[in-house]
Structures are given as structure tokens and as C-alpha cells.
Predict the structure.
Amino acid sequence: MTGPLVDAFGREHTYLRVSVTDRCNYRCVYCLPAEGMSWKPREELLSFEEIGTLVQVFASMGIERVRLTGGEPTIRSDIASLVRVIAATPGIRDVAMTTNAHTLQRLAGPLAEAGLSRVNISLDSLRADRFRKLTRGGDLARVLTGIEAAREAGLTPIKINAVLLTGQNEDELFDLVDFFGRWPESTALRFIEYMPFQARWHKSVSSAELRRRLATRVGLVAQRAEEKTGAGPSRTWTVAETGLTVGFISPLSEHFCATCNRLRLGADGHLRTCLAHEDTPSLRDLLREGASEARLARAIRAMVLGKPEGHDCQVDGGVPFEGVMTRIGG
Ligand code: SAM
């Protein structure tokens, strides 16, 4: 079972994203369709015990960092108990979560206590009305309280993820940078390019264009590799005036497939080796057939060997990503 998880292109995998549910309490316009989305029945989702077993197998193959995502991970009941199990798994050095922060006021403390290291929080607008529209019902005040609770619980550095869509919220670039500039020690702000799944519903501004716009207003100092927090795909700058770290995640315009070290376990047990491709069979079915950990490990290794080299989607064209984001978890 041991030995690094290397694919056919020599990429070694140390990072696993686990989607714990496809459900979400928000319905962000660029993530979920307004209607016609059916949630997976509960029995099709991996149980916490099954996730715990799979994480143990992945950890025996070199996975060191796990991120819980969704859907919205905090709506799965007793999510802190899953954090506790994963954090205690030998080989796992870091457990993080991506959340919309809607329930963090209540959960930040218990999650930190269970062993969660930090959170990434999605926030695309600082205007309550627009936030409600973009999330189809979200509550900005609650999210800001949730962010504060995460900071108090020490779930830092908090990375705020924003997707700026052309003609919708692109005008909030400066407001977001100014607002989070108040907490440069505990917070970083990242702009993620919109990835078209199935249909190309929206247009987003490329990272290069956002950087150009930002540089007309603030001083941007490129960070050296050793200043970066985490080993993620974001390219980071420091805002000279406030010290805030601003990152740009550019899956389309400056894609990072060549160094991709991540795997994605779906809520129903499918292992997605590439964010853009729906390609692999279900680990849940193997688990439920009673497969041993050694057999699971062999299946995982075979799936990783079949990982595609990358995607061919661009900001304004190319082949869209397969699937629905809420089933994958970002
Ligand atoms: N519910 C959690 C949240 O809101 O952070 C976790 C799941 S959500 C799918 C994870 C991240 O994916 C969010 O930061 C969201 O902005 C991002 N996302 C969703 N759809 C996207 C898309 N089409 N392109 C780029 N980012 C997307």
C-alpha cells in the first residue's frame, strides 16, 4: 500500500479534497442551477466511517493534507466528529475546510477543538442585497459574523475566496481588498477564475486583468516563494498599503495542471483525479462489497495512473469542465 501516489506524468499526490455532501444551504448562481438539481439520497453518500477508512488508505499512500468541502460541509450533522477522526489519522498533518461560513458562529469553536487547522470562506460581495442575489438567499451579516468567529477560534490564516463575474460583482474588487486589508495578519484574499461546468453561464475577469486593475489603485509587491502560506495554486502579492496577501487562482488563464497534486473524493465515493474530468469509478461500491484496505489502495493507484494530463478550457473558449461543482467541492 505504501509508496507515493504518482500518476503517469510523474505528479505526486499529497492532497485530498473530500466532499462530504452535495447539498448546500446557498445556491450560488455560478455553482448551481436555479432549479432541476436533485440531491443524492443519504444512503448513496459515504458515511463518516467510510470516509475515515478511505482517508486512512489515502494516508498510507502519502496523502498528508485533507480539505473538507461540499456542497456545504457544515450542514452535515456532527461534522466536527469527522474532523476529529481525520485529524487523528496517522500521516495526516493538516485538516482544513472550505465553507460559506453561514454556520460558523456556532461551529468555529467545536471545529477548531476537533482539530481543524483553518478555513477557506467563499464571499463574492460585500453588499447585502447583491450577496443575497448571488447566493440565492444568503445572509451577508451572518457570514461576516462567521468569519469573525473563525478568526477568534484561531482557524487562520482565513482565505477568503471570491469569484468576480463580468457585469455582476467585478466592481467590488477594490472594496474587497480594502475591507480585508483590516486583518492582514489573519486573512488572505484570493480571486478565483470562474470555471464553466457543462454550460457556460457566466463570464469572469481573468486574473491578469484583475491584477492590472488593482495595480492602478494599490501597490502590489510579488511575494517570494518562501512568503507564501500553503502550497496551493494561488499566485500571491502583498498590498503595500495594508500588508494584505492577495492571491489569484487562474485555472483557465494560467493553469497549473502540470503541478497538480490533488485528488477529489466525491460525496458518493467517486474519486475525481482531475477537476475537469468525470472519469473514475466508485470507491464506495468497493468498500460496500467488503474490499480490503489493500484492494482499495490498488484501485486508488490505478485511478491515479489514469489521471488526465490536464484540461483544455480557456477564459473565453475551449472544452467546459464535466459535472456540477456542488457535487465536486471546488
Ligand atoms: N459551500 C462551500 C463554499 O461555499 O465555500 C464549499 C463548496 S464550494 C463548491 C467551493 C468553492 O468553489 C467556492 O469558493 C466557490 O466560489 C467555488 N466555485 C463554485 N463554482 C465555481 C465555478 N464554476 N468556478 C469557480 N469557482 C467555483
Q: What stands out?
A: The first strand starts at residue 5 and ends at 6.
